[in-house]
Structures are given as C-alpha cells and as structure tokens.
Amino acid sequence: MEELQDAIEDAQYVNAIATQEEGPRPVLAWEIPTEEQLALWETKIKETKDTNGPEPLGIDWCLQSAIGLFMFSAFLKEECDDYLRINFLEEVARWRKMKGKHRLERAKKIVEVYLKPLPIDDVTSDKIYPEKTQIDEYDLIRVVPQTSITAEEFQTLYSTSIDETKSQNCLGLSGPLLQELFQRLKEVERALLAQKRTSSSELDASAEVKESGDAQEASNILLRRQREKYTSLKQLTRALKEGESEIPDNLFEKVDMVVVEDLRRQYWKGFLESKHYTKLKNFLWFQDRPVVPDDFFTMRVLGRGGFGSVIACKKGTSGKLYAMKVMNKRRIKLKKSEQLALNERNSLAAVESPFVVNLKYSFHSKDDVFLILDLMTGGDLGYHLHQKGRFPKKECQYYAARIMLGLQALHDQGYVYRDLKPENCLLAEDGRVKITDLGLATRITPTLHGAAGTRGYWAPEMLRRDRKGKRMVYNHAVDWFSFGCCVAEFISGANPFRSETALHFGQAAGKDTKEKAIDYATLEMHPEFPESLFEPDAANLCRRLLDKNENTRLGANGCEEIMAHPWFRNLNWEYIISDKTRPPYVPPKDVNAAPQSEIGTFAEDKKYQECVIDENDEKIYVDWDWTNPHAYASEVIEFLIYERVTGQPLLPISQNTTCCCSVM
Questions:
Q1: How far is residue 285's CA from residue 276's CA, in Å, rounded to a whole number?
Q2: In the annotation, is 121 catalytic?
Q3: Do 209 and 61 share a domain, yes or no?
Q4: Which residues belong to any copy of the Protein kinase domain (predicted)?
Q5: Which of 66, 324, 355, 499 could form a disulfide with 405 if both were Cys (CB 3.0 to 4.6 A apart)?
Q6: Annotation-wise, does 325 bind a ligand?
Q7: Could you tell me the residue range of the domain that residue 606 belongs to?
Q8: pLDDT tens by residue, 566-623
Q9: Buried b (16+ CB within 10 A) or exposed e, 163-198
Q10: Whether residues 273 and 294 fall in one domain
C-alpha cells in the first residue's frame, strides 16, 4: 500500500513539474478579508510608518511595491485608457535595474522615445506616439526619490503639459528640466567615451611581455596587469551589487516626480475608488496574514536530514512549486540544535541572491518549524559528478563562478557558510546552480572556532589548536579552502583530501583511522595536480585556493581575487553576476531524487516521546515567521498576468470546491 502511495505522489510531482510552463495552477482561493480585518490592517500600516518612508497607502507607497505598481498601471490602461506616463515610469524602473554597459544605451532610448520631440508620419503628418506596453516582470518597482517638489516647482516644470503646442514630446514636458537632463546625459557619454579610448590605447599584456625581452620585467608586467584586473573586477562587482554606475540613479528623478505628481492629481482619487485598489489591499492584507501549513499542498518527500524532511510542495493560492523543509521541534531540542536552526533561518532571510537557494516563507506550528525554499529539480552536483566522472571545463568554470558568488553573498552579510561540497550545490531545471543547506552558516565573530561541515572539505585552521590545546579561531577564508576542494573535484573527479593518496599520506604518518588520516592530510599534505587533468592555470588556481595559510589564500581579500585569476580569463563576469549567462548543461527532466522507499522515516523512540516542548522552547521561535515580499509579489503578479492574458479569472483546479481565485 505504501508503494502505491509513493507511486501516486511521484506521478503528482512529475506532472506538476511538467506543467509549470503552462502557467499557475492554483488549488485554493485567495482569502478575502472582512471589512473589520481590512480596517485593522490599514490602521496597523499607518501606525508603523517609516519616518523616512512615504506616506502609508499614498501613491509613492503604492508604487514602491511591485504589486502596487502593477495594479495602478492596470487601472490607468484598462479604465482610463491613459498609458504614456505610466509606461515612462515603468521604463525608468527597468532602467534602474540595469547594470553595466547597457545602462547608457537604455537611458538614451528612454530620452529618445519619451522626452525628445515626437516623430511625424510622412504620409499623414500626424505625430507618432510610443506603443502601449504591459508589465511582464514580477519585480518591477518605482524607487521613491529622497527629495520632493513643491506646488510652485511642479507648476513651473509641468506648465507646458496643458498646452501641447508648446511641447512636442509625449509627456508634455519642456524647458530647463529637460535641458538639465540632456546635458547630464551628454557629460556621462563623453566621460565613458574618453575612458574607452584610454583603455583601448593600452597595449595587451601578452604583447608587452613579448616585447620586454626580460624575464623579471615580464613578471612585473603580468603582476601589474593582474592587479589592474583585480581592481577593475572589484569596481565591477561593487557597482553591480550596489547598483552603482557612471550614470547616476537620479538621472530621471525630477521628471519622475513631476510625472507622478501629475498622475496623482489626475487619477489617484479614482484609483482609490476602483476595483484595482480593492484587489491591491486584499493582496497586501493576505501577504501580512500569518502563513500556516494548510497554505501548502505536499507532493513527495525529496530527502531527509537530521531534524526532518524536505518535501516538494505547492502554494495553494498561486500554484507555485517550492521545497518545504520541515524540522521537528522535539528532535531539534533533543540534539540541542536550536541555534543551528535559527542560524539557518536567519542567514537564508538575510541573503537574497541568484546564487543561493532563497527563503520564500518561514513559519511554525505546535510541533514543527518550516522553511519554504526554491525547488531545485535538477539534482545536486555530487550526483552529476558521479554520473559524469568529471565536468568539462565550461561546466567547471560556470559552476565555480556561481558558487563563488554565492559564498561572497553570504560573506557580504557577515556569514560564513562552512558546509560547501558538491552535494550542497543544486541545479535548477534550466541548469543554474545555487548553494543550499545553510544549517551550519553562522555569523563571523572574533571568537568563531570549531570544525563544522564535512571532513575533507574543512580548512586547516578549523583543525589547528594552540599550545594549550584549544581550537584556533577562523573567518570567511575557510569557505575558499572548501571552494578549492570543490574546484579540484569538478576538474579531476576527486577531492584531494578524500582520495586514496590523502589516506595513504595520513596512514604513513601513523594515523590509525580514516578520519585522522584525512585530517592530517588536510593539515600537512600539498596535493599534486597532474598535467593530464589540470592545465597550468587550473593547477595554479587550486594550489592558491588550498593554501594552508588563510591570510595568503586566494579569496582572503574578497572574491575579486579569484575572479581575476587567469583560469577565468574567458568568462564575461558582467553576464555571470547579472545572471544572464546561459548554463552550459541542462539536466534531464527525470526526477533526480532518491526513491521514497530509500529515504526512510524517523524513529520515534522513548526519548522522543518523553521530550516536551514547553513555553521556554516556544520563545525560541517567536521571530521565526517571515514572508519574503519579493517571492509573494512574484506569485501574485504571475497570477495577475495570467488573468490579463487569458481575459478570464483564474480558477482553482478542482478540489471539491467552486471558489474563484480572483481577489475581488
């Protein structure tokens, strides 16, 4: 009977994955608040106003939310047949998200389409207006300007909008406002052009080396070039992570404020009386309500850990597929691992990166704590490495680059990962890799010590002791040693410190157990990197990552040191960091998860039965509940886009209910 149930769950899981591209498939209706619930929610929103933020429930507050911008845009286009100004705001929001060299071209395009005089049709002599566009992204928001404009300034800047004969662009703007913007854009373009000319006039490093004719001089040239590349990459990663650019973020700020103010005066009152505003409030109320286990439908067990299971699940209202990590409170208490559970939850909530499995929701019940995470259906790199023996160079570089950026994302938030290994690197359906299982991640402190993770991937400083026999402290550099182990394993198919060579090395030194032999090799052995498997750059990279000295180890000063290494010379880092690089390998569609019969169940022995969760235990989880606003907005907007495209309300899949999913 259990085998039949497993087969049914497997079939449901495979079918759910196969139909993801067809659009959301909800099984629950969105809960609609009562008038009393909505009034209490509005009061709470107003009482928790951020002193530096926009007025709650006002237009700025609304447009800084992805759902709010989507609903206001839909109202203008569907009920008011007015799209030019909101499309301009949407284009500026898209532009602000852009990073790198394409930002200038997009800025010039916005100016050309919306702020320059309109083109004239040669035949009819009519003005040609931009086409209406729709929001198709799940994360488009307007960044609220830090400054404001007075009524007098607005009248001066937008006075021409009333008389179209004085303004030839589609927003009705003219005068000093536009001239200032055009001038700033020209200055930026000139600066970038000068920078490009300077860069292109420099000799290539290899040419300089050839011409030098002196070994020492050649070495100095290469070292200088390496430092230049490191500095350049450091500037690039900082700019891409922080949104910095040669083009200032406030380029369109004044125009943005004027346009929003004009829309507020003309349409905001009507929006507040519309069905779109009602739906917006209902969605935002639903976001703030407590998440409970019944919001999700489980499909199949994917794996089991120390405290609970990982289960494929579906969010009832949106039909979105996720992985649900369920950890039993009694098992956590028995192993005295409350802090480990909290570390995992907090580190996941702190880090939102395309290179780390992201937390969508966290909540708890009487017996369990829950983490809702990205569902990664492509299997782990340990599985694929076992299948292939070793990875081709393109895959090695791609996986290494993304894993490195995932580690750096954790380090940037003050965390050290401590559990990097191929089994903790998961592939998505499209082949993108992310690091997962942050159970051992912890804050970096001056007193951090103790081995954690998997033996053979530990850094030497995790094993060292001082003269008194106490463990030595360590920092984020331990992750780069583990990273070096993984890179070597990707290239050769074997971890240098979990190999037969490492085992024999330890045994020859008198270590009588496998564990002691591996630890000794980690501390004392310098691995060989045979030319048959490692090209010179790859061997050099691995040696520098596996440096026993954490202070001179590659990556000790940040991931840019690793990015600048010659082994990565052919990678386009801007595309990697922006998550635009196409994965070199797409995993097969079959289920890369262990058979449920092999996963097993937990033993509920006498100790487990006698363990009681009391009030003090519950206090540990008082701040556990959390909803990722970006994940929730993505669910809602995917749902709304589907309704917009089909022109029909999206109904739940038949579950003995006739409730409609539309939030009215």
A1: 14
A2: no
A3: yes
A4: 296-568
A5: 355
A6: yes
A7: 2-13+289-376+595-646
A8: 999 999 988 899 888 999 999 987 655 555 555 556 667 788 888 999 999 999 999 9
A9: eeeebbbbbbbbeebbeebeeebeebeeeeeeeeee
A10: no
